[in-house]
Fold this sequence. Notes:
CATH architecture: Alpha-Beta Barrel
Order of helices and strands: EEEEEEHEHEHEHHEHEHEH
Number of helices: 8
CATH class: Alpha Beta
Number of strands: 12
Amino acid sequence: MNHTANIVEIFSSLQGEGPYAGTPMTFVRFEQCSLSCRWCDTPQAFMHHDVCRIESPPRYESFIDVPNPVTATKLNELIDSFENECISVTGGEPLLQVAFLSEWLPTQSFKQRILLETNGVHAAALAQVLAHVHIISMDFKLPSSTGTKPLWAEHAEFLRTALTGHKEIYIKIVVTERTMDRDLQEAIRLISHTNKYLPIILQPVSPTLTFHETITDSRLSSLLRIFSTYLPNVSMAPQMHKQWGIL
């Protein structure tokens, strides 16, 4: 069956978040997201896109438009000129279009590394594509940070599912001045009960066009100290692509 997907954009850049910051990647940004975090920096993911913008040629920050939706075959044509060894499948939330991913990812995962960037709540969808991703960048959404409902059960199920695939996994946790210690303790408990050695990246919130809060250095130090007391592989890293001024 030829499934289709709505893609927001495809471009080449350096990964700006997590342990792969600075690594060249091809980014395929999918439309749709199931959450609405206060500090979301990709509001375009919530919009319907009649066209997908494609960086052409790669690395030149100039774009052409291609009609949505696209088939797996068409997507492969669109990324054929991108020469990076890793594809970041991002959003939005790409797992909301899992039928398409189930068809497309097997055509790429045997020749390029696939990094799945996900909000970490769609365990059943992950199970359908787990065999065809190499790296999972999983978000933990702290309710005091996001302003949304708690997602502890969803995160726990997702993490258990991810671990069955024996993939490389790291967890990103965006923290703000509003982040509460009780949320940290629950995240620590949940991670400790699955695999406490997973890399944890605390990411200080970045201002956006509609979100203007920051977090103080003293609070960042406090959060890092709390996590590091219980988990052995914790680091702090901002969104580097914003500091570099790149896509």
